[in-house]
Amino acid sequence: MNTLDFSILAQSWPYLWSGLLFSLALTAAAFAIGMVLGTCLALVQHFEIPLFAQIIRGYVAVIRSIPLILVLFWFFFLVPIVLGHLSGNGRPIPIGATYTAFITFGLFEAAYYSEIIRVGLLAVNKGQFEACQALALSTYDTYRHVVLPQVLRVASPIILSQTIILFQDTSLVYVLSLTDLLGAASKLAQLNGRLVEMYLVVAVAYLAISSAASQCVAALRKRYALATSR
Amino acid sequence: MFGVLFEQTADGQRYIDWLLSGLGWTLALAFFGWWIAFGIGVVVGVGRTVQNRFFSILARLYVEIFRNIPVLVQMFLWYFVFPEVVPTALGDAIKQIPPPWASFFPALLCLGLYTASRIAEQVRAGIEALPKGQIEAANALGLSGYLTYRYVVVPQALRLIVPSLTSEVMGIYKNTSVALTIGLMELTAQARQISEATFQTFSAFGAATIIYLCLALVAYQAMTFIDKAVRIPGSAPVKLTAGQDLAADMQQSGALPGAMEVVK
Fold this sequence. Notes:
Chain B: Keywords: Cell membrane, Membrane, Transmembrane, Transmembrane helix, Transport. Chain B: It comes from Bradyrhizobium zhanjiangense. By secondary structure, chain A is mainly alpha-helical. Chain A has helices spanning 8-46, 52-65, 68-87, 96-123, 126-134, 139-169, 181-192, 195-229. Chain A has a domain at 22-181: MetI-like (MetI-like fold), CATH 1.10.3720.10. In chain A, 82% of the residues lie in helices and 0% in strands. In chain A, helix 1 (8-46) runs antiparallel to helix 2, helix 2 (52-65) packs across helix 4 (96-123) and helix 4 (96-123) packs across helix 6 (139-169). By secondary structure, chain B is an all-alpha fold. Chain B has one domain (3-252): MetI-like fold (Orthogonal Bundle). Chain B has 11 helices and no strands. The interface between A and B is large, with 53 and 58 residues.
C-alpha cells in the first residue's frame, strides 16, 4: 500500500479547475438546449401533430433505451454527415469532439426533459383549460401564460434532479477524450502516475457538488410542498 | 445493410460473433449486478427507515455517496484505486486476475453497488407508502422489529415498487456500457470495434442499437408481467422518489400519470 501524496494537487489544480468549468459549461448548455427543445418535443406530442408526434415518440423511446455512450458514438459519427448534407455539398464536415459533446448532450437531454414535461402537461387540471377558454385566451396565450408555467413549477424538482444526473453524466465525454473534470484528472494521472490521488480528488469533487445540489433540490421541494399545501 | 456482420474477421470468426460475445458480457453484468444491487438495496432501504439512528445514518451515507459520484468515476475507483488502497498482498492478488475477469469483477461491483443506492431509495419510498396501520397491527400481534420487516413491511413494499424498479432494470443494463472504459468488451465496445475494423459504422452501431432496443422491450415486458403477478389488489403503484411530488400532485388533480422514469 503506497502512501498517499496530495501535494501533487498544488500544481495541478488550475488544470482540474478548467476541466470542472468545462463540465459545468456542458451541463448548462445541455440544460438550456434540452429544456427548450424538450418543451417543443413535449408540446408536439401533446398536440398530436400528425407524423411529427410519431417521429418524436420513436426518437424519445430509442434515446431512452440505448446507453449514453452509444449515443455519443452515434452522434460523433452522424453529425458531420448530416451537416455535410445540410450544407449541400454532401461531404462530411468534421466538427470535433467538443461540439459533438454539446450537440449530443443537448439532444439527448431533450428526450428526457420532454418526457418529464409531457407527463407534467397531463397533470394540468382540466379546469385550467376551460377557464382559459372562458376568458377567450388564444391557444398560444393559454400555454404560454397559464399551462406551461404551472407545468414547469410542478416539475421543477424532477427537472433539477435530472440536471444533477446530467452533470454526473457529462463525465462520459471521457470516451471522446475531452478534458472535463474527469478527463483532466485522468490526463494528469497518466502524466504524473498519481492515479489514486487524482481519482479520489475527482470523486470527492463530484460528491460535494452533486450532494450540495441535491440538498438544494430537497430544500426547494420542501418549500414547494409547503406552498401548495396551504 | 447488415451483411457486413456475417463477413469473416481477422481471427476467423464472423463480426456477428463479436457482437454476440459483447451481448453475453452485457447480459452477465446486468443480470448478476442486478441481484447484488437488489440484495444490498433492500437492506439499505430498510436501514433508511429504522428507528436506530446508527443504522439510519449509515444507510443515508451509503445512498448519498454512491448516488452522487458518477458511475464512470466509481468504475475507475474500483478498477484503478481499490487495488492500491487495500493491503499490498490483496492488491497484488487482485492485479493477478486474468484479463476479461480483471475488468468484469470491478464493473460488476461498481454497477451492483451504484444501482443498490438507487434501489434503496425506491424501497424506502415503498416502505413509507405503506399505511401506518400495518406496522401497528404487527406490533399489536407482538411481532418483533425483525419479524415485522421480514413478514409484513418488506414483502408489501417490494410488491408496491415493481413499476418503479422497471426504470432501475433499464438503468443497469444501459450502465453496463460504462464498463468499456475499463476494457471490458461488452456490446457497445464490440460495436465500436466492428466499426473500426470494417468502416461500416452505420451497420455496426445500428445492430447494437437494435439489440439494446430488444433488451429494453424484454425488460419492460418482464417487469410488467411481474407487476401484474404480484400487484397488491386495489393498490396504486408507488412512484420514483424523484417523481413522488409530481405523482402526488397529479393524483390530486385527478390525472393518472404514466410511468415516470428519470433514470438513464
